Structure formats: C-alpha cells, structure tokens
Amino acid sequence: MPIYEFQCEDCGEEFEVLLKSRSEVDKVSCKKCGGNRVKRLMSTITPIVDSGGGGSDRPRVAETHRCDTGTCTHLELPGHRR
To answer: Fewer CB near the last or first residue (10 Å), C or N of the chain?
Structure first.
C-alpha cells in the first residue's frame, strides 16, 4: 500500500494519504478544508548515507546480481556492519 503525496488546489495544504489501491486516488479530499480539487505530487526520497565514519558520503543503494536461485538483491542498512 503506497503513500501518496497531494496538494489541495483550494487552500494549498500538502498532505499524505495511504491508499490500498490506485483507484482510490480519485476519491482523495483535502484533510484541512475538505476540498476535492487535489493534485498528486511527485514524491521525494532520502538516500541512506554512511554515517559510521567509513569515510564515504556516497548513498547506499541496492545491489542486484545473479545468484543460484535467479536474481538476488542486497541492501545495506544504516549501522549494519558485515
């Protein structure tokens, strides 16, 4: 269930809504004024960066590679050391 970001075209309020399906996007109304003239915003992400003193400021990303079972993904999480 994705979280969508919206902005009300009547009052300018920005808010987030957790929707079970994409078809519910048309039924979203403003949490502040109740208006139904809302537009969906482009969501932004915050990359995970190494704060453990490793000397690297590069964002951590998922690494995908071939493995015995098909395609595997490895994701480094903050604070985790191998």
So the answer is: C
